[in-house]
């Protein structure tokens, strides 16, 4: 049902955009751009939601298309590994690998933003912590849209109303 609803939303997008499918070290990805995007070596790495078990770069492209249009920055959206076939930390490793790929292919870390929604937001947080643990360069910005960061369901806000 979610995929059907997202497909309907995708069909209603009225902005001009291009999708260029690529493979980055075996990870499927799509570059999303619009005609007014600037080629200035800035990029936003977008991580889609889907409860860590579903979602893909085609159906979940409504947010990054609109983001590419409004920011005039190219977006790279990736199909990170999903559970249960590819359990944690496979998805995290994919995201770190793509971030390093960008850094090694002409993008400065201070020109890379990371944006994730729901599970993608939780994955973005995990990626930032992993990069810090590795003593690696960090992205310039982190945007989280309703991140699913508490997989233990133990946070105070999980119960409503909060205790």
User: Rg from C-alpha positions?
Assistant: 16 Å
Distance between the termini: 33 Å
Instruction: Domain count, please report it.
Output: 1
Trace the largest sheet across and list its strands: 1-2-4-3-5-6
> Mean pLDDT, rounded to whole units?
88
What is the percent of helical residues? 25-40%
**What name goes with the CATH superfamily?**
Alpha/Beta hydrolase fold, catalytic domain
Strand and helix order: HEEEHEHEHE
CATH 2nd-level architecture:
3-Layer(aba) Sandwich
Q: State the shape.
A: globular
**Main pleated-sheet profile:** 6 strands, mixed
- CATH-defined fold name: Rossmann fold
- Determine and state the CATH class: Alpha Beta
Q: Give me the number of helical elements.
A: 4
| Poorly predicted regions | none
Query: Class by helix and strand content?
Result: alpha/beta
What's the number of extended β-strand segments?
6
What proportion strand? 15-25%
């Amino acid at each position: 049902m979610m995929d059907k609803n997202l497909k309907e939303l995708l069909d209603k997008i009225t902005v001009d955009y291009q999708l260029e499918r690529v493979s980055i070290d075996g990870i499927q990805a799509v570059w999303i751009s619009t005609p007014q995007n600037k080629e200035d070596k800035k990029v936003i790495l977008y991580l889609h939601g889907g409860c860590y078990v579903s979602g893909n770069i085609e159906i979940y492209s409504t947010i990054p298309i609109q983001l590419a249009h409004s920011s005039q920055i190219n977006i790279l959206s990736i199909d990170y590994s999903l559970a249960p076939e590819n359990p944690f930390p496979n998805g995290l490793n994919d995201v770190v690998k793509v971030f390093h790929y960008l850094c090694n292919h002409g993008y400065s870390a201070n020109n890379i933003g990371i944006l994730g929604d729901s599970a993608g937001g939780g994955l973005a947080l995990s990626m930032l912590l992993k990069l810090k643990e590795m003593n690696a360069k960090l992205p310039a910005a982190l945007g989280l849209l309703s991140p699913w960061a508490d997989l233990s369901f133990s946070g105070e806000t999980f119960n409503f109303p909060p205790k």
